[in-house]
Structures are given as structure tokens and as C-alpha cells.
Amino acid sequence: QVQLVESGGGLVQPGGSLRLSCATSGFTFSTYVMKWYRQAPGKEREWVASISPYGVGTNYPNSVKGRFTISRDDDNDLLYLQMNNLKPEDTAVYYCNLDVGVGYWGQGTQVTVSS
Prior knowledge:
Layout: E1 3-7, E2 10-12, E3 18-25, E4 34-39, E5 46-51, E6 58-59, E7 68-73, E8 78-83, E9 92-100, E10 102-105, E11 109-113
Parallel strand pairs: 2-11
Antiparallel strand pairs: 1-3, 3-8, 4-5, 4-9, 5-6, 7-8, 9-10, 9-11
């Protein structure tokens, strides 16, 4: 069955960096679009990055463009999110996502940006 397991979250000061990872299994990872989302307390889940199969293309909303970079390791079925110049408004639980009509989600990893 499909499994997604995020890791790498933590507490970081404004302007700092974190790299999130998502370990995947149960599907042919390289052939699917993968995404990262986040959800802050009291807010709806928000899309933050997408990467096409084989890493050919990436997309980001304006809120993170130029600061976040999504990447994938197709040899090891891993998804990454490099986050630089973090801001307090980036504080949220971050989730990786596989959408094949049915959405699959990991358990999430908490990112807190605070001084």
C-alpha cells in the first residue's frame, strides 16, 4: 500500500533553512507528480510545491517562490523540500502528497519559525 513518511521539521529562527524529506513506498514513485502542502493552525491546507515525473518541471505559489525548492530522488523514492529564508508565516505542519484521484498523505512534520 502507499506510504508517505515526512521528516526534517523543527524549530528555526527567521531567515533560517530547513530541508524536509518524504520517504515513499507502495507505488512507482518516478512516474507520478508529487506535491508538498502545509497547514497552519486555523487555516486551510495550502499547496506549496509540485514536481513532475522524473523532475522535469516544478511549480510554486508566489508565497514561497524563490525561497523553497522541491526535488526528488527517483533512485531512492524520496521527495525533498528545501526551505530557505524562512518566515514566521511559514509555520505549519508540512505534508507530502500523491494525488491519483484518491489523495494520499503522510502524517506531516511540524515546522516552526520563531525567534
